[in-house]
């Protein structure tokens, strides 16, 4: 009963505010029986259980206050949602952990393998095929380039025509060579820039999952907010010697394993590149080797959850590269030799 009386009183006050906000016709235009005396005792909208609102208060303010109160009460009940990718990873791992009843260490391993298989493995397969096609196209491109240089030498040694005609012929040959090269890349879908797509997906995924696990383990990091406590069960969700996933590895087994796995990946990639007939970039290889030496001391300072993710991801990469190495001898579609000869002949046009 008190709640009903309070609701009725609020409705009565809101109607009173709406009625006061309407324009009032002049008193002399109303019939005498409908004229309202502007006295406190004859006010039609005075609540019996509370004093009437002061006549000096604008009615519009009362209506605006009521609308603001309703809007505020509705807004406070709305759930706050975040679009941060780390929140998605946190929700994914929590869902897998709760629905499958797996321990946290097994949940991290399972989600790592699933994310790598869904996000990076298809791109790695496409990149591998493109690199193989590119390796088979490169000899033809080198032949075209040698023909191009031989024709340039012929122009210089012939001595016919002026320097302007020789320069125009050189520009025409260069344009023709670039057009043929682009046409060959499109025909066999092996443009070198497309082979760089995988790192643009794999690196952001690695950083996102690492930040999510850091947040779940409540590991402090500069310029980032840190929860007060790890997620429930994280401190006892490990196994063997790493029971606490929010603590560092006291045995150095995981940091050293991470360094060894990354070094193995670098050497496997280098061997695959050399087997395809291309030369590996010495500076890039040296840069990644330096990163391997840097990640080992970093791994000794981060929680076991991060070590477990980094080791699982590196082991997935090793298995993936070994599979590519085994399938390296599989035959791919070669460019048509006759078509290549014809295109080479087409290039001999000055």
Structural domain tally: 2
Q: What would you report as the Rg, rounded to the nearest angstrom?
A: 37 Å
Oligomer: single chain
Largest sheet: none
Order of helices and strands: HHHHHHHHHH
Structural class: mainly alpha
Whole-Å distance between the termini?
Answer: 101 Å
Query: What integer is the average pLDDT?
Result: 75
Give the fraction of residues assigned to helices.
Answer: 55-70%
Shape: elongated
| Strand tally | 0
Number of alpha- plus pi-helical segments: 10
> Would you identify the regions where 5 or more consecutive residues have pLDDT less than 50?
27-64, 66-83, 332-350
> Could you tell me the strand content as a percent range?
under 5%
Topology at a glance:
Layout: H1 2-21, H2 59-76, H3 85-100, H4 104-158, H5 163-188, H6 197-216, H7 253-275, H8 282-299, H9 304-326, H10 337-347
Question: What does this protein structure show overall?
Answer:
It holds the Pfam family 60KD_IMP. The chain crosses the membrane at residues 102-125, 282-302. Keywords: Membrane, Transmembrane, Transmembrane helix. Belongs to the OXA1/ALB3/YidC family. This is Cytochrome c oxidase assembly protein cox18, mitochondrial. With 350 residues, the protein is mostly helical. It folds into two domains: 2-76, no CATH class; 89-329, no CATH class. It is built from ten helices and no strands. It has helices at 2-21, 59-76, 85-100, 104-158, 163-188, 197-216, 253-275, 282-299, 304-326, 337-347. The relative contact order is 0.10.
